[in-house]
Amino acid sequence: MKRHNCIIIVIALLFLSCSRTNKLFDEAVSLDNQKKYHEAIVVWNKLIQNDPTYLPAYINRGADKFALKQYSEAIKDYCYVIRQDSTYIMAWLNRGNANLELNNYQSAIDDFNAAERIKREVYGCAQVIFYDKIDPKDVALEEICLQRGIAYWYVDSINKAYSDLNYCIDQKYEVVCSYFWRAYVYWKAGKEQEAYNDFMTVILQGRADDDYVIQAQQNLKLLDKHSILLK
């Protein structure tokens, strides 16, 4: 089943004390933009050797490892960041995403819960625009809720999953993905008509070549078939 794979990277530097760090950062980001993740990791390694205290390099190297499906290795980078700065909310979110990919659902939920707590206690819950914010460690509450809602679905915490996904829908955040997963919540809860309606919304709101739309179309056929069998 398609998941919402979203790993957050730092793509803007506010202040750098070292021109070499700045040059390496720009080089690595350029490679990331070209999806040359192996090559980017080599540059992130050089940057970390040059400045081992620069935490965004660990975040971005972890993101590249995540893109290469090296989830356990990505987690190591995020763990390092968290040990150095326990309020680095992006590290908690990204580690949760990696745990989700490894099917470590409870660990993922714990990470997302920590991210939400930090969001509320340290950053406040005002919506942020990714990559254009004062503090590059911050993330949107909606992103946390979306990922946690998916994790809750996997552990059959239907009410909690519904609450998180409903919040994302209310905020008009990642609408196609949010409706897609809320449809699965309804389906698992035995509310097939509501699931049908949400899958229809996915089809109407998404692009024809979107994986969510393709999967939603297949699911509608299954729901139609099941409805016919029950008649």
TrEMBL record:
Signal sequence extent: 1-22
Ranges: TPR repeats: 89-122
InterPro entries (alphabetical): TPR-like_helical_dom_sf (IPR011990), TPR_rpt (IPR019734), Ycf3 (IPR050498)
Domain of life: Bacteria
Record SUPFAM superfamilies: TPR-like (SSF48452)
Keywords per UniProt: Repeat, Signal, TPR repeat
UniProt keyword Cell division, yes or no: no
Name the record gives this protein: Tetratricopeptide repeat protein
Species of the source: Bacteroides ovatus
